[in-house]
Write a structure and sequence with these properties.
Blueprint (H helix, E strand, L loop, with lengths): L9 H17 L5 E6 L4 E6 L6 H16 L3 H7 L22 E5 L5 E8 L3 H13 L2
Antiparallel strand pairs: 1-2, 1-4, 3-4
Helix pairs in contact: 1-4
C-alpha cells in the first residue's frame, strides 16, 4: 500500500499537537487536542492533565468537521444558523461541531492533509490553540 503524499505523517501530526499544547499552556488552559488525517481518521490525540472529559469527543468532532468541509468549524457555524444555508448540518455525519476550534491542516503546497480540533475552554481560546497547531505545520 503506497502512502498518500497528501496525508499528514505522524511526526507532523505530533508537531501540530505540541504547538497547540504549548499555546494552551501559555494562556493557562487545559485542552483536549485531536489531529485527523486526510481521511478524517484520528491520527494523534492528547488530553492535557485536568482537561474536561466531555471535550474529548468535541475535539475529535471539531477536527473531523474541519476536514469534512475543509474550513474552520466557526465558519460552518456561521452558515448553520437558523435560516442559514447549512442549518442543522451538525446532525449529519454522526455529529458535527459547528463552533470554533477546528481548523484544516495544509502542507507547504497548500494541500489539505488533515485537520486539528481543540476543546476545553472558550471557543476563542480553542480556536487560538488550533491555529497555533496549524501554523506549526
Amino acid at each position: 500500500m503506497s502512502m498518500n503524499m497528501s496525508d499528514i505523517d505522524l511526526e507532523s501530526a505530533q508537531r501540530v499537537v505540541e504547538a497547540a499544547r504549548k499555546q494552551a499552556e501559555a494562556i493557562n488552559c487545559k485542552m483536549d487536542i485531536a489531529v485527523v488525517d486526510a481521511g478524517a481518521n484520528l491520527k494523534v490525540f492528547e488530553r492535557m492533565d485536568g482537561a474536561w472529559l466531555g471535550s474529548i469527543d468535541i475535539a475529535i468532532k471539531k477536527a473531523r468537521t474541519a476536514r469534512f468541509f475543509d474550513m474552520p468549524t466557526g465558519s460552518i457555524g456561521e452558515l448553520s444558523q437558523p435560516g442559514g444555508a447549512l442549518y442543522n448540518i451538525e446532525v449529519s455525519n454522526g455529529g458535527l461541531i459547528t463552533f470554533p476550534g477546528g481548523v484544516p491542516l495544509k502542507d507547504k503546497s497548500g494541500n489539505i492533509v488533515g485537520a486539528i480540533g481543540v476543546s476545553g475552554s472558550s471557543v476563542e481560546n480553542d480556536h487560538t490553540c488550533a491555529v497555533a497547531g496549524a501554523e506549526a505545520l
